[in-house]
Each structure stands twice: as C-alpha cells, then as structure tokens.
Amino acid sequence: MATGMIVKALSGFYYVHNEEGLFQCRGRGNFRKRQIKPLVGDHVEFEAENRTDGYILDVFKRKNELIRPPIANVDQAILVFSAQEPDFSTLLLDRFLVHIEANEIVPIIIISKIDLLDEVSRKEIEEYKQLYEKVGYAVLLTSTIDDDDGIDHLIPYLAGKVSVVAGQSGVGKSSLLNHLKPDLAIETNEISTHLGRGKHTTRHVELLKISDGLVADTPGFSSLDFINIEAEDLSDYFPEMAEKASACKFRVCTHTSEPGCAVKQALDEGEINHGRFEHYEQFLEEIKNQKRRYDR
C-alpha cells in the first residue's frame, strides 16, 4: 500500500501522484455505500500492481472541499477581477471573500486591465487596493492579462500550495492560467456584449504543476449563495470585524442593534470600512431571508 494525492479525475478513473509517479486508480467498491466520493486534491491510501491498475483504499480527512470545481484541500484562491470590462465590483469581491474565508482558504486578489483606466479611475482602484491590504489580503494590480508580465508577481505565491482560480466572468481567468502555463492552451472566450459576461466552458478538473505549486486548471467557485453560512457566523468571515467581535458586550452579537457592540464602535471610529460593513448587512439580511424560506 502507498499514499498519494489525486491530481485528476476523469471517466471513473482517479490519477494519484506521489514521489514514485502517477498511478491510474479506481475507487473501492464500498465507497458508494459509505457515501464517499474521492475528489481531486484528496490525500489517499491506494494499492497498485502497476501504473494503470490501482485501487483507492481510503480517503484521508479533508480540511475543506468545494462543489464547483469539485476539489478538496485547497490552500488558496486566486480571485481575478477586472478594473473595467466588466467594471470592478467590491460587492461581488466581498461575496467571494466570505465564501473563501468560510472554507478556510487564503485569498489572493488580482485586479486586471488597469491599463484601460483613466487617471481618476486608476486612483480609485489604488484606494481599493489599500483598503483590502489593510484588511490583510494580498492585492496585485496587472495590465491586460493576455500580454502582461506583471502577472509573474503571482508566481511566488504558488509555491507549495494548492490553488484555484475564481472571480468575475469575462475577466481573463483562463488567460491567466494560459500565461502561467502556456502549453495548456485553455479555450478563452470574449465577453458577450449583450449579457456583459463571459461564456462558460466545461472541463474536467486537474491539478497542474506550476512554479512548485499545484493549480486547478478549471476556473471555479461559482456557487455563491449563503446556504451553508449561519447568520451568527458571518462576521467571522470579515477579518476586521472578527478582530473586534470578541470585545462585544454580548457573546452572540450580529453587530446591528445590540448595545455595547465593539464592531459598531470601530465602524464609528473609522477602523472598519463603511462599504464593507454595508455589504455585511446586505449578506446578513440575505441569510436571514433564506432561513425564513427554508423554515416555512
């Protein structure tokens, strides 16, 4: 028996990699009864008589798992947002950040296409960069991804990590992957002028070796509802609020109308950004509305 990581799943086969190479495996027969579905990114125990005839015997405990793309044990998410075409949206970025924080994944924010901006818009993007860096996130600004060497600043972040690429449609996620690994030749699509969004291309999930790290070659994290997030946990996924929440008068505090709220005090004193807090309130109301619908 041996251990390794699933780096590709395709047509019922799982491709497991370890220091000895790549092994094509099938899942053990009782996995279905135990409701276990091996995922790309899983650390597994397997046995194989040769490189093409192996069986996965056990799947080790995961630290997280995503639905889209179906992948486990992700360390970081590379969030690609454009400054223009489509326009940069802090609301959508904060929605992504909440989901990523909830899955204990480290985000890296890339704002692309800054070469398309005028001076005023460029200054605004620089201010957003400072805002998210103050929260504690890494933020990289790049020119049009298709031909930008600035994206190479991302490479040091990849080493030793399992990464997924996510973000707005039409911002160049596939172009980013093609830039990092040119032999991929992932199909890219122009933004639909009518809909203002990119077209989607379905692919199997595979972890690719890029700069001493592993990167999922399918842009993902497309499920952005709050079904699995509880209202009382939401502030945990805003790091600047989580830092203050322990000083609130009430242990369970929604930071809306409770007295003695340290988060509201920090907001009034300018330590928490008002735009981010408004997004928190919007998400909180969305979660409460979802719960009301499910409780009927």
From TrEMBL:
CP-type G domain location: 63-224
Annotated cofactor note: Binds 1 zinc ion per subunit.
UniProt keyword terms in alphabetical order: Cytoplasm, GTP-binding, Hydrolase, Metal-binding, Nucleotide-binding, Ribosome biogenesis, RNA-binding, rRNA-binding, Zinc
Keyword rRNA-binding: yes
Compartment(s) where it occurs, according to its Swiss-Prot or TrEMBL record: Cytoplasm
Sample GO molecular function, one term: GTPase activity
Database matches in InterPro entries: G_CP_dom, NA-bd_OB-fold, P-loop_NTPase, Ribosome_biogen_GTPase_RsgA, RsgA_GTPase_dom, RsgA_N
CDD domains: S1_YloQ_GTPase, YjeQ_EngC
GO BP field: ribosomal small subunit biogenesis
Keyword Protein biosynthesis tagged: no
Subunit organization: Monomer. Associates with 30S ribosomal subunit, binds 16S rRNA.
GO CC list: cytoplasm
Domain of life: Bacteria
Coiled-coil zones: none
Positions annotated to bind GTP: S112, K113, I114, D115, G167, Q168, S169, G170, V171, G172, K173, S174, S175
Positions contributing to Zn(2+) binding: C248, C253, H255, C261
Stated name of the protein: Small ribosomal subunit biogenesis GTPase RsgA
Cofactor(s) required for function per UniProt: Zn(2+)
EC annotation from Swiss-Prot or TrEMBL: 3.6.1.-
Ranges of residues in domain EngC GTPase: 72-222
Organism: Halalkalibacter nanhaiisediminis
Annotated family: Belongs to the TRAFAC class YlqF/YawG GTPase family. RsgA subfamily.
Protein's job: One of several proteins that assist in the late maturation steps of the functional core of the 30S ribosomal subunit. Helps release RbfA from mature subunits. May play a role in the assembly of ribosomal proteins into the subunit. Circularly permuted GTPase that catalyzes slow GTP hydrolysis, GTPase activity is stimulated by the 30S ribosomal subunit.
HAMAP family: GTPase_RsgA
